[in-house]
Amino acid sequence: MYTAAAGTFVTDRTAGVPDADVFRSLLERSGLCLARLDLQLRVVEANDDFVKQFGHSRESLVGTSFYELLHPGVHGPMRKQFDRLVDGHRQRFVEHLAGIGPHHAVFTGDITGIAVHDVHGDLVQFVVVVNPEKGEQPNAVVVDRNRILTELDARILEGIATGVSTVRLASRLFLSRQGVEYHVGTMLKKLKAPNRAALVSRAYSLGVLSVASWPPVVSADYIK
Question: Which of 94, 155, 160, 162 has its CA 20 to 30 A from that of 80?
Fold first, then answer.
């Protein structure tokens, strides 16, 4: 059962297969990209919209780690969010994501993760709702390979995408912490991103960060 007020799903183990029919009805009628994950973050069940968005067959998707569906650049922020659900610090989260769709194309959007508990309060699984950006967005960024980043911006963006802290970036690039934050703020404005996770996701979706490279590398075409 989904309790809207609490923003959580609750299953009833005393009823045999808890809420399976209710959940499947929600899966197919919600109009959203929706899936269930087990505690190891493997896909248990997904609706048609979710399957289509990620470009998998239903058979190949079931049992797949959710992280395999995401770009490596957003694995760090996503792990932190799920860890908070596991620790009980929150019941749900909303995070920016970069997913891997058909033909390995990157798409961006938002994801809502919801903790699912049984009637005893034990965490049993997760529900994820993916809301991909569609069409031209009000805050869309048009990038025409016009060298939008300085060399220093590029190194900072690569560091953020790798998960390097502000303090380590400052030491590595011989900057003050405030200097790093200034450059990050400039890039947030340029790419119209609300936070660092969204900045990395948008950089991947625009081709500023190469999908085929790890550690992340900014394409020279975007460096002044």
Answer: 155
